[in-house]
Design brief:
about 180 residues, mainly alpha, 6 helices, flat
Length: about 180
């Protein structure tokens, strides 16, 4: 009786496998980009690996809780110490490696997002006028001449983003090398 039900399920299983094979991405799509790895790719891989090891840790705990005091040792299974060491190293990579890089890039990403949102909300003529005004302004500290130059142009739309939103720029000394001793 079980043979008949298994034989009747074989065509459905083969159809499911064919559709799964069609949805698998090609090898070129899975290859790393030619210009290097991005920070988000690395962060996603580290988080995925961390979550997989957390699940492995939980399974390890559940298996040892169900069995008697002495757990069975399998050569293929990682030990408790190996799992903990892997979890600790992945956590260190995330906290000491990825997080500081994200904080250094946050200012640049916020600035790019702001520019993109302004570009999508404002007409191109206003953006061109703003860029031209930015190039015409003198770099001196006297703002009076810059204010008079703005008076004869058309009025600008109020900017919804304040200066304090972008005031947290990265520390430039963090990017420079320490002097040799």
């Amino acid at each position: 009786m079980t043979e008949v039900t298994l034989l009747s399920q074989v065509p459905a299983l083969t159809d499911a496998l064919r559709s799964a094979i069609e949805s698998v991405p090609s090898a070129e799509a899975l290859a790393p980009p030619s210009d290097g790895l991005s920070l988000l790719d690395i962060k996603n891989d580290l988080l995925l690996s961390y979550l997989q090891n957390c699940v492995l840790f939980i399974l390890f705990k559940l298996r040892n809780q169900d069995s008697s005091n002495k757990p069975e040792v399998d050569a293929q299974e990682p030990s408790y110490d190996q799992i903990v060491k892997t979890l600790v190293s992945l956590r260190l990579y995330l906290e000491k490696g990825v997080r500081p890089l994200e904080s250094r890039l946050k200012y640049q990403v916020d600035k790019l997002l702001l520019t993109a949102s302004e570009a999508s909300t404002q007409p191109t003529s206003q953006l061109n006028n703003r860029q031209a005004k930015a190039h015409k302004r003198p770099s001196s500290a006297s703002g009076a001449s810059a204010e008079h130059a703005d008076d004869d142009d058309e009025p600008e739309a109020p900017n919804p983003v304040t200066v304090s939103d972008l005031a947290h720029r990265p520390n430039l000394s963090a990017f420079s090398r320490p002097p040799p001793r």
